[in-house]
Amino acid sequence: MKKSDAIRLEPLGGGLEIYISGACSFGTDAVLLADFAAPKPGDAACDLGTGCGIIPLLWQKGSGPAHTVGVEIQPEACLLAERSVDRNGCGDRIQIANADLWYLPAEWKGGFDLITCNPPYFTDKARKSPDPLRAAARTEGMCTLWDVLSAAERLLRPSGRFCFCQRPGRLEEAMRGLVRAGLYLNRLRFISHRPEKPPFLFLAEAGRRPGFSLLPHLFLETDGEPSAEYKRIYRDFFPASPLH
Q1: pLDDT tens-digit profile of 12-31?
Q2: Model pTM greater than 0.85?
Q3: Strand (E) positions, the chain?
């Protein structure tokens, strides 16, 4: 069995579990994005490139959106996400759609209050993993940053929010893309492992209405220990987590 074929269950806290594999898993960035987006109870939400379904499932620990569609182009990832949805009894609140961002149902246009995406971070020219599933998740062979921005613009309601994360080195490209898509940058937050380290990630929120706020920098560690905010975000993520 290849590493990418090994499927296992991971606890998420709150009684939830998720199926992951060596090639289809999740990291801190997805957890931070789920918290940053903070859906409202009545929201219709859409997670683009949902992978194993981590963001829609994390939202089920709180009041969560009324309904979430997780869009994923890779059939293997969709199967994992669907298994997790079934295991957690969330089928009435989460739908997994195996689809390309450019060919989403026409009736979805302008239908979502909240859209999230943890997109591939590296351009198609970057060195790729030999595992095709991992390569597709991390590089832009199947989905570019512009694909994500364009899809978000099509799906957002007039008052909707689009939240995403990306590497700081692509911030300028992301800003140009938002302008091209007719969206305004509304919130921006940089993430660093420690105060002495440069940011490795940014979280952004965009919408159809102007107005911008630069949020305080988030440090995952301070004085060699997990920061208070990092502990809050991971408050019940793993029962045996050292962050408690």
Answers
A1: 988 999 999 998 999 999 99
A2: yes
A3: 7-13, 16-21, 44-48, 67-72, 94-98, 112-117, 156-166, 184-192, 201-207, 213-214, 218-219, 221-222, 225-226
